[in-house]
Design brief:
This is CLRN1 protein. This protein is an alpha+beta fold and 232 residues long. The chain has one domain: Up-down Bundle (Butyryl-CoA Dehydrogenase, subunit A, domain 3), CATH 1.20.140. The protein has seven helices and five strands. The radius of gyration is 25 Å and the shape is elongated. The two termini are 38 Å apart. The relative contact order is 0.19.
Length: 232
């Protein structure tokens, strides 16, 4: 492939990787990871609410990795409450999973920035050897993509398997019990999915630039070795 086309591909991959780092960094600080509604089950049972009456007992909840907000609705109007995971909810959430999600988000940002830097270096400078060359570009993209996948898996398990929304809704609630009425992943969660796909796309751009995948053997070298063996 001509050098000019390679430069364009590397610049494109570098810009995408840098945008991925910025998007992940912005997503970490928001509370737009999960949105949902919570039902005040105790209040609904006390008045035997059905149909349209249930809306008076359905509140809202949204949260991210560090903080969130819930609106407590038990028939007397909505009462908003801000909360923080650290240190308020640390005792009731699966802390090891939650901290792992934050850690992998940080790693994703770091390696996306490293990848962007080396993409630009290969576009405008002389590519380094070994890990700083094509193999390194595959490595940075692969690590960032894996981190994105791990973030989605761990956070999904925290929300769905460990019922994170219900634990948050019932925090410091003595006489009332809340159940998750509905919940869905919000914008910041899908940003991580897009970033993972971007890193996978970067690996394809490297391949389009003419670099073979790491650890792949050349057919030409195998044929030459076989011919040399036949000589002896």
């Amino acid at each position: 492939m001509p050098a000019q086309q390679k430069k364009i591909l590397f610049c494109t991959a570098g810009v995408l990787s840098f945008a991925c780092a910025l998007g992940t960094a912005a997503a970490i600080g928001t509370q737009l990871w999960v949105k949902g509604t919570i039902l005040c089950q105790t209040g609904a049972l006390l008045v035997n609410a059905t149909g349209q009456e249930l809306h008076k007992f359905i509140g809202q909840i949204q949260y991210g990795l560090f903080h969130g907000e819930r609106v407590r609705q038990c028939g007397l109007g909505g009462r908003p409450l801000q909360f923080s995971f650290f240190p308020d909810l640390l005792r009731i959430i699966p802390a090891s999973i939650h901290v792992s999600v934050i850690l992998f988000c940080t790693v994703l940002v770091v390696f996306a920035l490293v990848g962007a830097g080396f993409f630009m270096l290969n576009a405008f400078g002389s590519p380094y050897e070994t890990l700083h060359g094509p193999v390194g570009l595959y490595l940075w993209s692969f690590i960032a993509c894996c981190c994105g996948c791990l973030i989605m898996i761990l956070f999904s398990s925290e929300v769905k398997i460990h019922h994170l929304s219900e634990k948050i809704a019932n925090f410091k609630e003595g006489s009332f019990t809340f159940k998750t009425h509905s919940e869905q992943f919000a914008n910041s969660f899908w940003v991580i999915l897009v970033c993972s796909l971007v890193q996978f796309l970067n690996a394809l751009l490297i391949r389009c630039a003419g670099f073979e995948f790491p650890f792949s053997k050349s057919k030409h070298s195998g044929t030459t070795t076989g011919a040399a063996d036949l000589m002896y």
